[in-house]
Amino acid sequence: MASVETAAEHERILREIESTDTNCIGPTLRSVYDGQEHGLFMEKLDARIRNHDREIEKMCNHHFQGFVDSITELLKVRGEAQKLKSQVIETNVRLQEDGKVLIGSMEELKQCRVQQRNIATTVDKLAHCLPVLEMYSRLQEQMRAKRYYPALRTLEQLEHTCLPRAGQYRFCSIMAENIPKLRMHIRETAMTQLRDFLESIRKHSDKIGETAIKQAQLQRSLDSAVTLQPRALIGRRGRKEAAVTESSGEGGSPLSEQDSGILDVEDEEEEDVPGAQDLVDFSPVYRCLHIYTVLGLRDVFENYYRKQRRKQARLVLQPHSNMHETLEGYRRYFNQIVGFFVVEDHILHTTQGLVNRAYVEELWELALSKIVAALRTHSSYCDDPDLVLDLKNLIVLFADTLQGYGFPVSQLFDMLLEMREQYGEILLKRWNLTFRQILDQDNFSPIPVSTEQEYRQYTSQFPLQDPELEKLSFPKKLPFSEFVPKAYCQLKEFIYACLKYSEDLHLSSTEIDDMIRKSTNLLLTRTLSNCLQYAIKKKNVGLAELVQVIINTTHLEQSCHFLEEFITNITNVPPETANATKLYGTATFKDARHAAEAEIYTSLNAKIDQFLQLADYDWMSAAQSSGGLTTSDYLVDLITFLRSTFSVFTNLPGMPVEHATLPGKVAQTACMSACKHISTSLMQLLLDPEVRQISIGALHQLNVDLKECESFARASPVAGFQGDTLLLAFSDLRQLLDLFTQWDWSTYLADYGKSTCKYLRVNPHTALALLEKMKETSRKNVVLAQFKKADRDRQKLIDAVIKQLRNLIAQHHA
Q1: Is the entire prediction scored with pTM above 0.85?
Q2: Distant-in-sequence, close-in-space partners of 401: CB < 8 Å, separation ≥ 6
Q3: What are the tens digits of pLDDT across the range 478-510?
Q4: Ramachandran bin of 406, using left for φ above 0, alpha for ψ from -120 to 50, beta for the remaining angles
Q5: Which of 89, 259, 394, 473 has its CA 20 to 30 A from that of 74?
């Protein structure tokens, strides 16, 4: 059994050796040698080798005849091949001999073809190089002629079209190296020209603005001249914008160098004033814009241009420190601003995006705020109304000019309304000086007129309506002084000045009327009122002057409705319009008249005090008979003064004025006030603490002076008093003196407190004080004459009356 398995295993190993690559036979043989039957395996291997040798031998015997036949055929072919080789060699020798001439001709043909190819290549290269050279030559000519935009176009074509076609040549390399330098040179030159342009328009913005303002002024005068006709002139700006629109609509390409320079001026023959843009050559801007656009740096150029213009705007908007001194300073300031924005407006409408509407509006907002601030500051220094009015007209023209270019200017007109208040204050200051000068120069006397012409001259200045005065023959006197017609004319001049400022402010008639009336009210209630108070309160103003002030204010008060009509006529706004402001002239002149009346009373009393200071009573004088006493000298002079003074009051107008006191009442009040003041002053002389003793003789002298005063009152120095009304002013002093001179104490004490008392106006305190002074005098007399019984009795009587008066006062107090 073991031998069968071994034989099978050896058979398997042999098959494996036959079928396996010799490189992998090692493991197989190793398995043979690992076993114990390798001898047996070698025998089997030898037997297998012998079998294969027998098979090989059989195969070789089968194919050997064919091999022999092939060798025989091969030997025959070798002989034929030797013959063929010799023939080929002979043929080749003959061919070589015969082809030597052909080969020479072929070489010559080859050389000709090479030359022909070289010539064609040269012509082709020259065809590509000549345009490069020509274009470079043209570029140099354009650079020398400073035609930089065409030069840049040539440069672009040379770089991107011609040089790539020309190939790699040294001169092409040199050109390629020079292209960035030329481009940089063009860029720097264009920027230099732009800087020169910016500097130029900065220097000439004044002239540009002046021309634009003249155009606006001319247009406004033409509009006002032909308000009902269609405009004959079409704005230059409209024509030029249309031209720009057509040129941009045709191709959309940037303007060429020729038409991007100075603007057309074909309309100069039609208009006297050239367009503001005609003064500026904008070609550097257009050229630089196109160059930077071609270079792909348009954003850089736009940012640079806007930045520089913003800087220039700040310089233009910075006013000179002394701008407020003259109108020319304001005009130059406005001209520069207008010139700046005219240039920006033209750039906006003639370039595509260099500046846009938002940028221009931003600049204008900045400018507007700075302009308004500068004008507010500088106009506040101005105290000349004529300069303020000229400035207002200049601002209006400035605003109209820029409004014509599409800029909003409502803030400027709002500021002008603010300046209206300042203008009004300046006017009030000027008219304050004017009224004071008129008052200082006035003689406070009625105006004498000798002829009809003089009379008409004054009535044309002041609306005097007095039929009685009209009937009088010449020469005659107007009731008022020169102040009245002059002041009335100045009131009208003030109204005209207010109206001038309101013109061209785009205000309605109602607004203008309201502004004029409010300003006039300020003039009446503040300025004229203060001036009248100044004239009334001024030192050394006589009663005659005060009387004339009353007459003047009365006539001015009557003229107030004529001022109302005057304002209505110039504003065309009826006074009955709702919410219409009324003039306060009536109240102003009424207050002035009342102040003058009060000043008359005060001045008259002060004059009376001056006379009373001259009173020199001998309070210790002995009693005399009434026939031996005479009126004091000071009182005689005082009465004479009062009579002459009250005669002046006959010049007061006799017509009543609505809501005013009768002028005749002024004289009556002054007369009553003077009498009361005299009575009170004489009473104060009696009760003066410094006068400690008074004799009965002094009371008799005072009684004589009082009778003189009563005589003056009975004579009615001023008409209009009923009965003895004026005597009532002296009743207190009269009853007091009667009580003491008649020594009627029994009646006084018995009837005290009764309405029928004879001495009703005698105050017990006053009587007691006077008795105390007489007691001191009587006591001194008793000491000096102790042996006179009459004096002792009188002293006892005085003591008894004093005691009774004290009891009376105590009972009344209880």
Answers
A1: no
A2: 212, 213, 215, 216, 338
A3: 888 888 899 889 999 999 988 888 888 888 888
A4: left
A5: 89
